[in-house]
Amino acid sequence: MLLKRILKAPDQSFFLLGPRGSGKTTWLRGVFPDAYVIDLPSERIYQRLLANPGLFADELRAVPTDRWVIVDEVQRLPNLLNEVHRLIEEKRLRFVLCGSSARKLRRAGVNLLAGRALRRSMHPFVPEELGSQFDLEEALQYGLLPVVWGSTEKWETLSDYAQLYLKEEIQAEALVRNLPGFARFLPLAALFHGQVVNVTNIAREAGVARTTVSGYLDILEETLLCFRLSAYEARLRVRERKLPKWYWCDPGIVRAMKRTAGPVVPEERGPLFEGMVAQLIRAYKDYRLICDDMHYWAPSGLSEIEVDFLLVRGRDLIAIEAKSGKTFADTWCKGLRAVAPLEGLRRRIVVYPEGPAMKTRDGIEIVSFGQFAGELAADTLWS
Predict the structure, then answer these.
(1) I need a surface site. Which of 13, 178, 258, 275 has the fewest CB within 10 A?
(2) CATH topology of domain 14-121
């Protein structure tokens, strides 16, 4: 059964970006069944247009006005965007420009299409899309990428995914000169899931220069596998920490990059659960605009105090702490109590895997992951 995704297509041309295996092509086939498709993953089509880019415009001149055109993996030939710009203006064609990397698009000057093509993101599954099929333990072990979730051999599919990423995204697109060094870097970067990244330590372990590691981190972010969460800055009496935290977009990818098979062990459970909450918020920020921005909060000089996520909407804030333990402990609320004086703070929430909803005497809410996901789905988080 084909699962319905919650991403809504706009009425005008747009970029659709998301990591490999997130279901972009499947979604496009369902939403735009009559679209004209330029399939750049096809080596035959890619080589033909690489040798003669003018054929792209020649082909689309025969497409009726106002029809949708899908250009899949557009980052392989970013120079086609010049023709896309012209065809939007002259023929009123509407484009879906689909890709798994923002790197080459940014370098090619996507701003040429500013105002003519919106940006949308496709994420791994969220619980709302899976319904009764969602299982938190399975999600922590294998992740929520559609290409993996639908497989009968999930770990094998994840392992293949990691290798294909190196071969097709990194080597084929010539994003790095030292592929063995990048391969050594990946499992080290996975160890920093949910942490402030120590570039110097990773460089030493990977045997590459510090500047090289910084470039590698940029590649992971620009190929949409990872994202950075900046520290919240406000006019408080303490200075906020400036370094961002680092998250991968899916727990299955984290485990594949570390080559960690089998059930989730206690020492990896906390970061995987925190990362899943981070990715869930990020997905709904893109899909439903549940907040303007998200950060973490940690006053400098107090390393033991932190709030995992601080959501911003206008002048209002919601503080969220993710805890992977099975039973609520009052120590979970340390950061949420420290952040209480922050102006505009509407709610303070602890999210844990499963259990009853509770509330502390000072107003901190304790909710299960399922209840939290339900609030995001129903858009009641700010109610």
Answers:
(1) 178
(2) Rossmann fold (3.40.50)
**Taking Cα atoms as reference points, which of 55, 45, 113, 54 lies closest to residue 76?**
45
Contact 73, 15 (CB under 8 A): no
| Inter-residue contact 164 to 179 (CB < 8 Å) | no
Question: pLDDT digit string (tens) for 138-163?
Answer: 999 999 999 999 899 999 999 999 88
Question: Please, what's the b/e burial string for 147-181 (b: 16 or more CB within 10 A of its CB; e: otherwise)?
Answer: bbbebeebbebbeebbeebeeebbeebebbeeeeb
Calpha distance 74→103 (Å, rounded): 11
| Residue 245 parent element (H or E) | strand 245-248
Q: Which residues of 273-289 are buried (b: 16+ CB within 10 A; e: fewer)?
A: bbbbbbbbbbbbbbbbe
The total of other beta-carbon atoms located within 10 Å of residue 9's CB is: 16
Alpha carbons 364 and 345: distance in angstroms, whole number: 12
Beta-bridge partners for 312: 293, 317
Question: Does the predicted model carry a pTM greater than 0.90?
Answer: yes
Give the tens place of pLDDT for each residue, 305-348.
899 999 999 999 999 999 999 999 999 999 999 999 999 999 99
Q: How far apart are CA 319 and CA 312, in angstroms?
A: 9
What is the pLDDT, as a whole number, of residue 70? 97
What band does 189 get if pLDDT is binned at 50, 70 and 90?
Answer: very high
Which residue(s) pair with 19 in the sheet?
Answer: none
Residues ≥6 apart with Cβ < 8 Å to 269 = 140, 324
226-229/245-248 β-pairing: antiparallel
Domain boundaries, the chain: 14-121, 127-268, 275-378
Q: How far apart are CA 196 and CA 179, in angstroms?
A: 25
Rounded distance between C-alpha atoms, residue 113 and residue 109, angstroms: 8
Q: Do domains 14-121 and 275-378 have the same CATH topology?
A: no
Alpha helices, DSSP H only, in 165-237? 179-191, 199-206, 210-222
CATH number for the domain formed by residue range(s) 275-378: 3.40.1350.10
